[in-house]
C-alpha cells in the first residue's frame, strides 16, 4: 500500500490518508440519503413498500455493525478503589451531624480543553450514567453500545444518538437537530439523553420541575395543564415554546461559558432517571412537578432526589454517616448546563431545619 493511503474500515478500499475521514463518513451519509430518498428502481417490485422496509432495516443493521467496529473508548481518570469510595470516605470524615446517600459506582468524565469545553457537558453526563449502568447492571451492559463492554467517546455517542433517531426515538428532537449531530458542537440535553438510553431498551424517564409561570416551556403534551401531582404521558411530541433555542428544549441560551454549556439561561431544572429493568418497549414517559414559587420548587427537587436514592434498594454499610444506594445516578439539567447527581446529603442545623446538599459530578471540573 502507498504510504500516503489508508484502508477504509468499512469497505476496505485504499484511499488517500487525507480523505479517509470524509470517505468513512460518506458510508453513513449515503445510507441516510438512501433512507430518506428511495431510488426509483425500488418501485418496480410487487409489494415494494415491504422490500424497502427490509432494506431500511438491513441498512440500519449495517450502520450499527460498522459503528460497533468503529467506536472508540471514552477517556477518563481512573481512581483507585473507585471515585464513590473516595467520596464516601470524605463524607464519613465530616464531624457534623449529617447523613448522606451515595450511588455505588460512577466514573467521572471531564470536558477537555480543545475538545468539548463549552458544549460537551451533555455527552459527558451520558458517559457517567453509562459507566454506572455498564458496571452495575449486567442486563443493561448486554444491550448497550453493541456489547462493546466500554463507554464510547463523544463522536461515537453522537452516532448512537443518530441511530436512535432513525429508529424513531424522539422524532421531534431529531427534527430540531435536522437528524444530524455527528462531528458537531451542538448542545444536547435531557431529552437527547433519554432518547439514547431508551434506544437500548432502558426505562429512562424525564422529570421536570418548575413554577406555574413556566407552564408553556415545559409541558410535554399539548393541551395538558399544570397540577401539583406529576403528569405522565406516553406521547413523544413536544410543545414548541416561545423564546427557546431548539435542541435542548428550554434549557439553553446562546451565551457560552468556559465552565458550562450555557451561562445565561434561566429555566426550570429537569432530571433523567433510569428504571430498574430493561424494557424493549420503553414508553418514554415524562413527569411534571409544578410549583408556585421558586423556593418551593427547590424543596420539591430536594425531596424528589432524597426519596429516589433512599428507596427500598438502599443498602446500609457499617458507616456512621453514609449509606450506599443501588440507584442509578441522575442526569441533572438546569440553566443551560448539566451535571450528574450521584447522591444527596442532609445536615441537621441548630434551627432544626434540615439543609440538603446535592452531591454532583460536574463535567467542567
Report what the structure shows.
The chain has 365 residues and is an alpha+beta fold. 32% of the residues lie in helices and 18% in strands. It is elongated. The strands form 2 sheets. Strands 3, 4, 5, 6, 7, 8, 9 and 10 form an 8-stranded mixed β-sheet that branches. Strands 1-2 form a two-stranded antiparallel sheet. The protein starts with a strand and ends with a strand. It folds into 2 domains: 5-37 and 50-70, no CATH class; 83-361, Cathepsin B, Chain A (Alpha-Beta Complex), CATH 3.90.70. This is UFSP1/2/DUB catalytic domain-containing protein. Residues 229-249 are annotated as: Disordered. Pfam families: Peptidase_C78.
Name a few traits of the molecule.
365 residues, Cathepsin B, Chain A, two-stranded antiparallel ribbon, ubiquitin-like protein peptidase activity, 10 strands, alpha+beta, hydrolase, 8-stranded mixed β-sheet
Parts with pLDDT < 50 across at least 5 consecutive residues: 30-49, 217-266
Order of helices and strands: EEHHHEHHHHHEHEEHEEEE
How many domain units? 2
Task: Examine the coordinates and then state which fold CATH places here, giving the name of the CATH topology of the largest domain.
Answer: Cathepsin B, Chain A
Radius of gyration: 22 Å
Shape: elongated
Number of helices: 10
Strand content: 15-25%
Instruction: Average the pLDDT over all residues and give the rounded result.
Output: 73
Which structural class should the secondary elements be placed in? alpha+beta
Helix content: 25-40%
**CATH hierarchy class name of the largest domain:** Alpha Beta
**What is the strand tally?**
10
Largest sheet: 8 strands, mixed
Determine the N-to-C terminus distance.
Answer: 44 Å
Instruction: Please tell me the CATH architecture of the largest domain by its name.
Output: Alpha-Beta Complex
